[in-house]
Write a structure and sequence with these properties.
The protein contains three helices and seven strands. By secondary structure, the protein is α+β, with helices and mostly antiparallel strands. The protein has a single domain, classed as Alpha-D-Glucose-1,6-Bisphosphate, Chain A, domain 4 (2-Layer Sandwich), CATH 3.30.530.20. β6 and β7 form a beta hairpin. α1 (about 25-30) crosses α3. The relative contact order is 0.25.
Length: about 150
């Protein structure tokens, strides 16, 4: 399985943020998939089927879309990534965590392809960049407030 985002996809984005919390805390918040609904307003359901390991599937609902994702990378406190399939869309999303003392740099990059993605690009070419910015800010708020 390819673990790199598809740089030729209709929508791609890469964003990063600095979070004033240790990497363990940031990692634990982000990788508690079933806890996403408690702090991510766009996510209304999330269920991990099995352990947090490469190959495990999780099913979730974001902005009304049902998504089936498969973890392709799980390197504790360093990297997590997954693919996602939904109506008219295929996503590849990677998260990298870098510890800098009590601060964590988080990098999020994603590619979206499929017919619905092409429509999204027409109506909102910055959709994915805004989405990554919002999810990073939400992660920062959660990790810094706990």
């Amino acid at each position: 399985m390819n673990k790199s985002i598809d740089t030729k996809a209709p929508l791609t984005a890469r964003k990063e943020i600095s979070i004033q919390a240790p990497v363990e805390k940031v990692w634990n918040v982000q990788t508690d998939i079933e806890g996403w609904t408690a702090w991510q307003p766009d996510i209304t359901a999330a269920k991990l089927e099995g352990a947090l390991v490469a190959g495990s599937v999780f099913r979730w609902k974001a902005k009304g879309l049902s998504i089936v994702s498969t973890l392709h990378t799980v390197e504790p406190r360093h990297e997590i990534g997954w693919t996602g399939v939904s109506l008219g869309m295929y996503a590849l999303h990677n998260w990298t965590f870098e510890a800098h003392g009590d601060t964590t740099r988080v990098i999020s990059e994603e590619s979206l392809s499929g017919w619905l993605t092409r429509l999204l690009k027409l109506f909102d070419p910055k959709f994915l960049e805004k989405s990554l910015d919002a999810s990073l800010q939400t992660l920062k708020n959660r990790a810094e407030s706990q």
